[in-house]
Amino acid sequence: MSHPLRGRILAIVNVLGHARSTDIAAELGEPVNSISFHVRSLANVGILVEVPELAKDARERVWKLGPPTINADLDLLKDDAAYRTSASASIGLIYSEVERAITAAMAAGPETLAHSEATSLRLTRHQARALALRVHAVIEEFDDDPAAAAAGTQTEEDPDDTATAIYTGLFGIAPVGRKV
């Protein structure tokens, strides 16, 4: 994950379910040869796996996400400084990608949705966990059925505009000070 484009590639494959390098390149507006290089790098470590049964012919390569193998081990986070550094670097890459996407959307003008929000709340540990679980449930709801999840939501959007895009986001919650 040493290159920021790789996180964007994974986001596209995650949303599409499976994709060819040309599909990913079209979504990201990047050259196919660059995408192919990064896809092969991700495949070499098992993050992406080939799905030959979805290929139209022997020359075509279709990819999907490999089995999830990256998990935060809380004991290691507590006891292993190198592991904490690695986890922090991963979060930094994700943050950088979200920041890049929001900045690009804002530069594109008011017709492109970009929303960023920062807040601080005084919560107990249990309230913070409840908030995180609720946000996760809403994200899953939109992932499972975006139309149903958005039904009844009042916006000023044009109801005839059905164009979709892949949106990226980051939600994090952590204490910033001492317990009171």
Compile the SSE list and pairings.
Blueprint: H1 4-16, H2 21-28, H3 32-44, E1 48-50, E2 63-65, H4 74-79, H5 81-108, H6 125-144, H7 146-150
Antiparallel strand pairs: 1-2
Helix pairs in contact: 1-5, 2-3
Q: What features would you describe in this structure?
A:
With about 180 residues, this protein is mainly α. The protein folds into three domains: about 60 residues, Arc Repressor Mutant, subunit A, CATH 1.10.10.10; about 45 residues, no CATH class; about 50 residues, no CATH class. It is about 50% helix and about 5% strand. The protein contains seven helices and two strands, in the order αααββαααα. Strands 1-2 form a two-stranded antiparallel ribbon. α1 packs across α5 and α2 crosses α3. The longest helix has 28 residues. The radius of gyration is 19 Å and the shape is globular. It starts with a helix and ends in a 30-residue tail after the last helix.
